[in-house]
Amino acid sequence: MDIFALFTTRVIEALRADYPELDEGLLARVVVEPPRDAAHGDLSTNAAMVVAKPLGKNPREVAAGLVERFKAAPDVTAVEVAGPGFINFRLSDAIWHQVLKAVGAQGENYGRSNLGKGERVNVEYVSANPTGPMHVGHTRGAVFGDALASLMAWSGYDVTREYYINDTGGQTIILGQSALLRYREALGESIEIPSGFYPGDYLVPVGKALAAEYGTTLLEMPEQDAVLIAREAALAAMMELIKADLAQLNIHHDVFFSERTLHGQGGDIQTTLDWLREEGMVYEGRLEPPKGKTPEDWEDREQTLFRATDYGDDTDRALVKSDGSYTYFAADIAYHRNKYLRGFKHMVNVLGADHSGYVKRLSAAVKAVSNGEADIDVRICQLVRLLKNGEPFKMSKRSGDLVTLADVVDEVGADATRFMLLFRRNDASMDFDFALVKEQTRDNPVFYVQYAHARACSIFRTAERDMPELDISPAALAAAEVEMLGSSADIELIRLLGAWPRTVAAATLAHEPHRIAFYVHELAGALHGFWAKGKDDPQLRFVNLSDPKLTLARLALVDAVRQVIRNGLGILGVSAPEELS
Known about the structure:
Elements: H1 3-18, H2 24-27, E1 32-33, E2 43-45, H3 47-55, H4 59-71, E3 76-82, E4 86-91, H5 93-106, E5 120-124, H6 136-154, E6 158-165, H7 170-186, H8 204-214, H9 223-247, E7 255-258, H10 268-278, E8 282-285, E9 303-306, E10 317-318, H11 328-341, E11 346-352, H12 358-369, E12 375-381, E13 384-388, E14 391-392, H13 405-412, H14 414-422, E15 430-433, H15 434-437, H16 445-466, H17 474-478, H18 488-498, H19 500-510, H20 514-536, H21 548-572
Parallel strand pairs: 5-6, 5-11, 6-7, 11-12, 13-15
Antiparallel strand pairs: 1-2, 2-4, 3-4, 8-9, 9-10, 13-14
Helix pairs in contact: 3-4, 5-18, 7-8, 7-9, 10-11, 11-12, 13-14, 16-20, 16-21, 18-20, 18-21, 19-20, 20-21
């Protein structure tokens, strides 16, 4: 039961009845939401201000007519016009009791919707270069993308989780050379790893595997050929390592797309460039030097350019380098055309902070290759500053001195890693404080939320122990007289439960899973606060030995809170323990 959607429908129906000439597109702009100040009521709508101008009326005049209609509604205790034409509603306790019953009836499906209408969406995330294990810098995008995919699936989208493997280019050759050195080391040679190579110990097993398979054969062939063999072995090993790292956070992709498949004669890049030429989206020309470039850094030449400015980009983009090879952007265009041809009209790319300049160019590419039929949302995950003894800890794959995803999970666990990385907007930088994440206090958000779920479970254990004759089965909870719950504390908690469906829908549309983390944290706080009030007021205790009916009603409320916290943590990929050690 989405109380906000319900009243949106009722407000729109009232407008249709009073003004049948109103356009449906206009009515779609009507929203019902919580008022900014809770003292103003339970719900607020902008309806009068949306339709007043087309009707040639004053917003307050339209609002006054709507108020008269809702005054007679049995579930509305007060309705009034506020400010320039907002309408604020106060609802009866009865409607909040209906919300509580809906949570109990829908259980794990409470808050699910068909918002996405089964439309296919491709969420591409992580896509780290396969040149070493996942480090904490990748982890934020991995967790964000995975939670967003779960959120969209929860809201009725057909979601595909995709990883783009950057398995071509100069960094893969360096990886092959680094692995070949480890191969020589495995054969007994003393090696020195040059600057710019990958020195991490994670390539030692690759070298040993090459030695076991090839013996000294690789030493006897031209080095460039041996490097290619070592590269393939290293890429395969690194992808298995990355998949294992991700699995520690329960992240699994549906598709692993190889960039290499785009290249070569007849590959997607060539096919896409041919298509772009046929469509008139490519021309031969010169570009102005980019800002910040010195003349010696800039090659002024005639080149193949994509008309990106026709599709909203700041500049047209080069597709072919001076040596005849394709630019990275050429591969990007081909890859996103491949997605579109696979049937994805909705795409989400989760990229790191160093890719903020990609937003407009990727949007232009998708618009062009789909003739405007597809859309893309590029979500940038800002940097995570990992604190170690109060000091930032630098990470670099090539230095070998890196903090890996596995290191973080081993230190604080998968739940804490996921929740803490989601407890902040993706576009805001953050500190990941090991000391805070390991605390069992209210200052630790993940502990605070999981403790609320565990506390709810302990309340049921207390009821079983102290009131053994009270039936607290699901059937009994469903039949509980929740109408007995009339205190301000009860209604406040149920009102928060009623906000869950709207929260999920809003988070889905905005592609912001942090809203789910914020919500469950607020709900956890409300449960903890209610429990504290029960210490002073026996009538607010969850288990009241002298009143079995009230106890059962309160247990129905606790069960609903427990269920919604579990639903929210499930979207975030975080467990909901019944006990905490």
